[in-house]
Fold:
Amino acid sequence: MTENRFDRIEMCMGTGFRFQGQSALEAGPTDLALQAACAILHEADAIFSTYKPESYISKLAAGKTSVAECPAVVGEVWDACEEWEKLTDGWFSAFSPDHTFDPSGLVKTWAAKRAAESLIAAGVTDFTLNAGGDVYISDAASAEFDWRIGLSKPLSIASDKAGTLAVIDLKGSGFRAAATSGSAERGNHIWNPKSAGREFATELLQITVVARDLVEADVWATAAFAQGLASMARIDANEHLEAICILADGQIAATTGFAALIARD
Amino acid sequence: MRASTKTAISAITFGVLSLTYNIGEQTPLTSHSFSAPSNTSLPSATATQSTPGAPVLTPTPVETSAAKPTTTVPPVVVVKPTVPAVAAAKTVDGSVVQSGYGKVQVQVTKSAGKITDVTMLLANATDGRSAAFSYLIQYAIDANSSNFANLSGATYTSEAFKKSLDAALAKF
Structure:
C-alpha cells in the first residue's frame, strides 16, 4: 500500500459506488479523475433513471420521445441490451412486462464500467470499484487484498446474521469482476422475462457470477437469477464465467472451476 | 465455450459442488452432481444422488474477527476490530444525515490508512432500523480490512450511513 491510497464512496442511482486504490498521480489530479468518473455515473443516472420523470428513459416509456431524439448513449444502451438478450437466450431482458424499455438491469454496471475506463484513461490505473455490490478489479491492481472479494450471505446487510459466505481471490486469474443478484437486499425484483405476466424469479436466493468484465458479470447474474438452477449448466460451459448460487431450499451449487477461486487462507 | 477437453467433459456430466446452507449455522457437506445429458440443446440441470468423485468444495465461511452484531443492539454501537495500530490513529466525525428513519452520524477512526473503528454518534433511527447500523459498521470495517477489499452482494441501499461515512472519510 502506498501513501496515495484513495477511498471514495459516491452515492448515485440509490446505492454506493466505492473507488479504492493507489494513485501514482498527485492528490489533486487523482481527485479530479475521480470527480470525472463520478460525473459519468450521475450523467447516466440523469438519462436512464426510471424514478425521475424528467429522464429520457421515463419520457421514452411514456411515449413522449423516441430513441432518435435521445442522447446517443440511449441508442448504445438499447443496442447493448438487445445483444445481451440474444447472448443469454432471452433470460436477460430490458423490456418490462408492460413492454416499456427498462435498462435498469444494465445501466449501473454499464456506467460503472465507463467510469472505470475514464479513471484509467486519466492515469489512475490501480484500483477496485464496488458498484452497489458488483465489484470490478483493474488489471493493474497491486494490493493483494484488492484482488479478494467477500461474497455476502443471502441476507440483507442490515440483518444481524449477515456476513460473508466465502472469499474469492481473483489474482492470477483472467477474471476481473464479480456481480451478485439476489432477493436478500431488495426483495423480489427480478422478473422472469419468459413468463406471461409479471412473475418474479424465486428459484434462487442468490447468485454470484465471476467474469472478465463488470457488465458481463452483472448481466449473467441477472439472467441466471431469472432462469434459476438450469442456468448453471450454461455458465459452466462458458470458459469465461464461473458462478456460485444458493437455492431457495438452502443448497449451494457452484460451477466446476469456482472452487479454484476460493481464497484458502 | 471451454477448452476442448472441458467441452467434452461437460457433454457427459459436470460436477457441481453442493452443500446445505443454513442461515447462521454450519452444516455438513453433501455432494451432488448435476448431469447435463447433451449439449445439443440448452442442458437443464437436474439434481441426482451424491456422486463420489464430484468436486467437493470445503468453503470455510470466513468469519470476521471483530465482534459480531447481536439482536439486541443499543442505539450507539462501538465495534472494536483486531487491527493492530501501526500508525497514530486519527478520529473524524461524519456529517449528520437525516434519513427517513432518523438522524445518523458516524465517527470514523483510521490508522495506517485503514478504517479501524466506526462509532455511531447519532443513530436515533426507529422502526427497528438501529439494528441495521451495527452491521453497516461491520461492513465498513470488513470492506477495509486486510482480508478483502470489497463485498459483493445484492445491491445495498443504506444511504444515510454511507453519506455520513463518506463525509467522515473525506476529512482525512
Remarks:
- The two ends of chain B are 48 Å apart (CA to CA).
- Confidence is low (pLDDT under 50) at residues 1-86, 125-132 of chain B.
- The helical segments of chain B are 4-12, 130-142, 159-170.
- Chain B touches chain A through 69 residues (CB under 8 Å).
